[in-house]
Each structure stands twice: as structure tokens, then as C-alpha cells.
Design a protein that fits this description.
There is one protein chain. The protein has about 260 residues and is an alpha+beta fold. It folds into 2 domains: about 25-175, no CATH class; about 185-255, no CATH class. Helices cover about 45% and strands about 20% of the residues. The protein has helices spanning about 5-20, 25-30, 60-75, 75-85, 145-155, 185-190, 195-210, 215-220, 225-255, and strands at about 35, 40, 50, 85-95, 105-110, 120-125, 165, 170-175.
């Protein structure tokens, strides 16, 4: 964050530290659970978060159980032993970002039997990369594995519980939910949008250098401004297309072609 002034840098560092402490399983436990009939359950917020397994024989619950069992068996021994200390308590189906539209995404609550703090795990279905039609199929047979391996390559420290499995024809990966991940506040970012974009670009560049061949990447980019100019043109075109798409969406809503509701 050296692109920021000292005061802004200190304020942002403090904000990141504060948010990271809140966005943990303990924080989620307080916010996303309730006690009902003596049981700790995930709080529902339809249609974004709906508990599964309420009715006997719920097929969604069976999917979760099978994924969890297969996932546990694939973990290293030391992680598997740790997972054995936790008991499956409750599960809900989630609606998350646009990248997971149509995918099965579950939030699972587990509680320790030996005094461990409760934890949330997220189970997400994984499909082929959006880049695959334009490049080549992944070298990894499981798309959940592709996601986790990509995270491990690009991140300096990855969730120790991240893993993957396959159920029938569907791939899944499992990870901790709210593992001190920080979501930027647009109101705080807006006054410093340019330096924030610079910092994000630097972080992304370092991540890709970790996952690829930094020498080949550097040679491809070269020392001139050609690549920078190309990215600038692409970014402007993308912004224009986004504005046009949003205008079409608003028009469709106003014309009654699409039913819309206020956000979450």
C-alpha cells in the first residue's frame, strides 16, 4: 500500500485488521446461527440462505453428506484427524455471487466435541473455467481440484482445509467460510479508487508470477507501453459494455420483461 499517504495507509491497515478479525467462523457463528428447540441452527434468510434436511430424505442433504465423507477421506492425515474432532450440526443452501449461478453451494456448520470453536465450511460445485473454450482443457480431471490448486499456487498462505471431491458427474471443492477474508467497502475505496486499483493490480501480478513462469510473462509484456495501452483500451471497452448491459437490464425491468426485487 505504498501508493497511499501515511494517514490513509494507517487507516486502511487498521480497517483491514478490524474486518479480518470479524470475518471468521466465530463471527459468522454469532451472526448466522440461532438456538431453536435446544439446537444451534443456521439462521434462514430466504431465498439467499435456506436450510436443507428439514424434511426426511431430502436429496440435498444426501449430496452434502456424500461430498463431506468423500472430501474427508481425501485430506492429509493430520487434517483428517482434526476434522474428526468436529460434529456435523446443520447445513443450508446458499445463493452467492454471479459466478455460481446454477451451481450447488452449501454452508455447513460444525461444532467441536472437545472444546474447539465452531466452524463454517462452504461446499461449492465447480465447473470448467470460462477460459477453457478459448484455450485448452485443464490438465486436472477435477474442476474442484483445479480451483484449490490454483489458490495454493497464487496465495502465499492457503486454507489448510481446502479440498475437493467428485459426486457422480459433478465436481466440488470444500473450504472454510469467512477465513479472515476482507471485502472492500466501496464507500471507503471510492476516494482512493486509482491507488486501490494499483494495489490490486500489483497483488494480482505477483499471484500470476507465482503460478506461471515470471520470465516468460516479463518477456511477453516487454519494456514498452504496448501492453499497458492494450489493457487500457480493453478496460474502457469493458466499462462501456457493462454500462450498456446495465441500461438494457433497467429497461427490461421497467418494461416488465424481467421481475426484479430489492437486493439482499
Amino acid at each position: 500500500m505504498n501508493v497511499l499517504g501515511k494517514r490513509d495507509r494507517e487507516a486502511m491497515s487498521a480497517n483491514i485488521a478490524k474486518q479480518s478479525e470479524r470475518r471468521t467462523s466465530v463471527g459468522a457463528f454469532r451472526k448466522l446461527t440461532e438456538v431453536r428447540d435446544g439446537r444451534r441452527l443456521i439462521t434462514e434468510e430466504p431465498p439467499f440462505r435456506v436450510r436443507v434436511g428439514v424434511q426426511p430424505g431430502d436429496p440435498q442433504m444426501e449430496i452434502v453428506r456424500e461430498v463431506v465423507e468423500a472430501y474427508r477421506a481425501s485430506m492429509p492425515t493430520h487434517v483428517h484427524r482434526l476434522l474428526e474432532r468436529f460434529t456435523f450440526t446443520d447445513v443450508a443452501r446458499q445463493v452467492v455471487g454471479v459466478g455460481s449461478v446454477g451451481m450447488r453451494v452449501f454452508l455447513m456448520l460444525v461444532e467441536g466435541r472437545s472444546g474447539q470453536a465452531p466452524m463454517f465450511f462452504q461446499i461449492k460445485q465447480a465447473a470448467a473455467s470460462v477460459y477453457e473454450p478459448f484455450t485448452e482443457p485443464s490438465a486436472l480431471a477435477n474442476h474442484g481440484e483445479r480451483v484449490v490448486v490454483g489458490q495454493r499456487l497464487m496465495q502465499s498462505a492457503t486454507d489448510m482445509f481446502a479440498g475437493w471431491t467428485r459426486l457422480g458427474e459433478f465436481d466440488f471443492y470444500v473450504r472454510q467460510f469467512r477465513d479472515m477474508k476482507v471485502i472492500p467497502d466501496s464507500r471507503k475505496v471510492a476516494p482512493n479508487l486509482v491507488p486501490f486499483a494499483v494495489v490490486c493490480g500489483q497483488a494480482l501480478a505477483k499471484a500470476h508470477a507465482r503460478s506461471g513462469d515470471p520470465v516468460a510473462i516479463s518477456a511477453y509484456l516487454g519494456s514498452g507501453s504496448t501492453f499497458n495501452a492494450a489493457i487500457g483500451r480493453y478496460a474502457r471497452a469493458y466499462a462501456d459494455q457493462t454500462a450498456a448491459d446495465h441500461a438494457d437490464l433497467v429497461a427490461a425491468i421497467q418494461g416488465g420483461q424481467i421481475e426484479a426485487a430489492e437486493g439482499w
